[in-house]
């Protein structure tokens, strides 16, 4: 359990119990908006500002009754009365007039990460889920199983949970489950966000190269995760996916207990050294993905049925069950409510079915996530063609860096459409980006492997291509961390018109 809260260096302390008004600069981010909603639910006066907001956060903030002004200006700070605390999001640049006014005003201010810790986590047992992939799904699942087994947890997750009807929850139980991101904290604090949560239990899912706009290479990413591991107290516990080389590397010097978990990718595969919790004998079926979970230290074996498909999701389930077992929740007890787990919006979310075609929305954008998601969809919908639509949108995915990896990942699908990378500058503090991903080259490489693959500059052209080439039983998998031009809505509309 975390101890007393000390304010960050050079920042004024505040008394969380005496707050009445908190103002958020850049309130529209998932984390910022969720913390704002949590404080509003406590009865605080919450205000905020941001650039133009879009659903789902714009809708959520309005539903919660939180006043938001559009744009950034110094006068916003006191428009609704002087706040007791200002929270500044990591999307805010150092020339933001509202942030400058807040810092110069003498009003206590915090980054999102420090505010979350001081206001919500500090006196709970913090379960942080970190890693390149699977954070949102794993965080939500851990909180769902804790709640279903009567532990009444608190939660803040980087997505809209279908289990909780939102992205946050404040419970009376001893646990706070939070998604720990490796992205930087604020313009005035360039350390990773996950360093601010001080985990008592850390679930570490994977360590790969990502966020090329702030990390130079994989070694630079590993430095951040090593700092996270090094900062854990000796009494903390790391539940680590030791089947991944990057994870093994960063936990090697841990001074606290490390328990490994993983899942076989080939039938009969032996668990790596150090793995205690191992998923094996995976068998997809109509009721879910059935597998055997072995606790190799206790000499126990459990039959699990999960609604989440794909080896990567078996790993996520095993990691959560392993973490909860260390918190006194027996695996058999935690596994029972697993089948009722609904997941998170935009994680293999079925958006609709029309003209015999199922349209699924997913957040995958890194090649590893793309490959895992295609595998999961093929398991979940046996016999149907997987039609993969990818929008390379992030500062990392728009680079040539992963071009060959995208070819390998997308080759698992039957038909592939890739949106062409735009001409907008790619933000980076690690050096000028000179080589961009070529959607045309990716498509050509896939066609050379016998795949029906095309690169497209227009969303409507992708919709026409999908509809004109459709077959009954097709599963269209839309993959992007953005809106992708509302393509899934357009697809369903077009399919209904011909169905």
Oligomer: single chain
Helix segment tally:
14
Q: What helical percentage do the residues reach?
A: 25-40%
CATH fold naming of the largest domain: UDP-N-acetylmuramoyl-L-alanine:D-glutamate ligase
Domain count? 3
Write down the overall mean pLDDT: 92
CATH class of the largest domain: Alpha Beta
Describe this structure in words.
The protein is of the alpha/beta class and 499 residues long. The protein folds into three domains: 16-115, NAD(P)-binding Rossmann-like Domain (Rossmann fold); 124-340, UDP-N-acetylmuramoyl-L-alanine:D-glutamate ligase; 349-498, Alpha-Beta Complex (Protein-Tyrosine Phosphatase, Chain A), CATH 3.90.190. Helix content is 29%, strand content 25%. It contains 14 helices and 23 strands. The chain has helices spanning 30-41, 57-63, 97-105, 112-121, 135-148, 218-230, 245-251, 311-325, 331-335, 367-380, 403-410, 439-447, 459-468, 487-498, and strands at residues 21-25, 45-50, 67-70, 85-88, 109-111, 125-130, 154-161, 166-169, 175-180, 184-186, 189-192, 201-204, 237-241, 257-263, 275-285, 288-295, 300-306, 349-354, 357-362, 386-390, 415-419, 452-456, 475-479. The strands form four sheets. A ten-stranded mixed beta sheet has the order 8-7-9-6-12-13-14-15-16-17, sandwiched between helices. A hairpin with a 4-residue loop joins strand 7 (154-161) and strand 8. The radius of gyration is 23 Å and the shape is globular. It starts with 20 loop residues before the first strand and ends with a helix. The mean pLDDT is 92.
